[in-house]
Records
---
Amino acid sequence: GRPRARKQIINPDFKLEDLGIGGLDAEFQDIFRRAFNSRILPPEIAERLDYKHCKGLLLFGPPGTGKTLIARKLSKMLNGKEPKIVNGPEMLSKYVGASEENIRNLFKEAEAEYKQKGDDSDLHVIIFDELDSVFKQRGSAKSDGTGVGDNVVNQLLSKMDGVDQLNNILIIGMTNRLDLIDSALLRPGRFEIQIEIALPDEKGRKDILLIHTAKLKENNLLTKDVDFDELAGLTKNFTGAELEGLCNSAKSFAISRHTKSGSVAQIDAATIDKMQITRNDFLLAF
Ligand code: ATP
């Protein structure tokens, strides 16, 4: 086998709110417990156990719940780099062989490094958004005679678990529809860990609101009547993205109150100093 030079890169004492992620503590813990033990263990222990890395992680749930956010932060934690983000439909091409070429290109860098170093010490994280758009085409593409979907799937699988597999990659797939994903993809060695990123509960909503108003608090721009317990109670079924939008709208209402006739571009620091965002600004934002 190849030598393995694992790095211990994750500080276990991190706090999720410092990463700007709210309401996903249990999910994050679950991801670490199920998907990253092999990368967190001291290398010699992982070696002794012959602990196989998880190469594919699937995050599923409604849009705007923080799947991309969590995947980006995971990448930063695992290798200090921004991940490569690709989108399912963009990978598909109607030209013969072009989709497979797209997939191959995605792995070029990781492959070159793996060949050169022969180990997994530099992890490449690839985020594959809208995974279902590619993988639900298995079989159905065949029937229209192109086979494009199947070829793309096979190309991806061969990088993950095939003959030319790489050990220095982690693919984080994302989908709103787990039910559309071909079950062959969910086997060990593939997207073997599936984690649901659901709508936040009341506590989660409060955490997310606090994250997206942290700067306001730091700069004393919130009036005392803004009550985040109340707002969390009023925002049932809101996604993280919608909660962020609510905070932004409240800011817009506060700004328009302070720009009586002039344009927003004319607003000066002195006005901003006096400006505060009130409970009513939040209520107007609904
Ligand atoms: P999609 O399925 O549409 O790609 P997604 O689940 O990947 O959606 P994100 O793109 O991660 O959603 O969320 C959009 C934005 O909403 C984030 O960049 C972040 O600003 C905010 N947001 C979403 N969820 C959270 C959360 N749990 N904590 C803090 N902010 C969040």
Note: Residues 20-24, 63-69, 129, 176, 208, 211, 240-241, 244 surround adenosine-5'-triphosphate (CB under 6 Å).
---
Amino acid sequence: MQQQWWHKSVIYQIYPRSFNDSNNDGIGDIKGIIQKLDYLKELGIEVIWLSPIYESPNVDNGYDISDYYSILPEYGTMDDMNKLLLESHQREIKIIMDLVVNHTSDQHPWFIEAKKSKDNPYRNYYIWRDPMNGQEPNELDSNFGGSAWEYDESTNQYYLHLYSKQQPDLNWENETMRISIWEMMNFWIDKGISGFRMDVIDLIGKNPDKQIKENGPKLHDYLQEMYINTFGKHDLLTVGETWGATTENAKLYSDPKRKELNMVFQFEHMNLDKIPGKRRWDLKKLELVELKQVLSKWQYALGQEGWNSLFWNNHDLPRIVSRWGNDGEYRVKSAKMLATLLHGMKGTPYVYQGEEIGMTNAVFDSIDDYIDIETRNVYKERIKDGFSEEEIMKSLYMKARDNARTPMQWSDEPNAGFSKGKPWMKVNPNYTYINVKNALEDEDSVFYHYQKLIDMRKNNNLIVYGTYNLLEPDNENIYAYERILENEKLLIVCNFYEVEKKFYYPVTEYTKARILLSNYNNSGLDISNIRLRPYEAIIYQIS
Ligand code: TEU
Ligand code: CA
């Protein structure tokens, strides 16, 4: 496998609205990010994935772009963006931008033009269909609930939106539209960005008449055309968000010979605590054996051809320590265990803002505290469907995207040091003890565990390129696997729960083991009989 710079990097996702507010209007901004670059440098990350900072009406917090070439004034100016690039590069931190090109905002000039008439030059930048018997053209539904078709009276046609009606889908069959996208991408590449995270990129090949959303027939043609016309000429990092990816088509995206993307975010592991075939609000207990099967399947599938992304969190997901760890008595231990389990694997790890200090989900008693359009839609939908308020609020606590969007907790000052103004979203009340200031002052904090994991990846080819091998697949409490490179081996062994367990690793009289990292101070050295206390996670080097 040809070595790439992003094989060794750890990527930190910033959700700008909630990261750091420099001018006390209650909204995070670019100057606020610049103020925290030294913190990110200390954590050891080498790449920032910046969620959208472009002009937007913020129906979907920036994933509804109305001008790809300008910065949302609440976040700052293009000068601020240029300064962020300069200051990051001075710290040897790269920046990848969020590329949202499955749809635009309905306030984008292209759509405003397109709506004017059927023969407007921009009409076919979007997807329009005649009514069918006076109704929507077909049954396609929006991922935010309801129909994916919105009626436009002025031209007596429907337009397609797989998200909110304020996010009309772009028509990728239109080559003129695609060229407009290449031009925009090259504008940002020329500014010195280091790559793109591509929002719902598996939807751009959609066939609305056949009601196909994901993995449409021309998807890979468009990606190969994008490669040739934009990032293919540069050494950039590209990661596609592909909710529908399978191990088979993930190879199509990430096999270097195909000249498409470097890797994808697949979400199979993120669907293991919902009732199969239902929506993520229909809760089911996670089974560790299933998690081991899914994560191992992806490690094996993309181990030699293609490349995995590794993540528990992002701005759309609940916080992992509340979801699958223990955000009470064992918050620190379980956060470290989950980090060890993930960062020991083969692939590029992503850390979402606040994950590195063990931030948790927020307990909101009222739907009024939830701001996300998806959350508010599902609340209305479920009330209509007869779910009890209690059931709905429990699902929201466990799965709402808002959990990831409460302001970053910098200190125990008011508003967690995020802002001196009224934050756009409620701060999690536990900021008084879960915050960066406390973490940096505590050598045993989650922060320093992440710092060690990130540093380990930079200097250890065994972690980066070693073959993955799952141990004891049927063990319902312990996740243990090896990483093997020539005659070197790592053993990563994690107690996923709070009941003490034993793990027996086969040894000979010549086997030697040393601890590279543990979330306990005095973990055992005898790997033939390892005592695993609550959430104990250990990385052994074996020779
Ligand atoms: O998300 C894709 C997406 O479908 C998820 O939001 C999913 O619907 C849900 O959150 C989990 O089931 C991307 C962006 O990450 C998200 O923030 C945007 O809202 C969405 O696309 C539209 O751009
Ligand atoms: Ca601000």
Note: The chain has 15 helices and 20 strands.
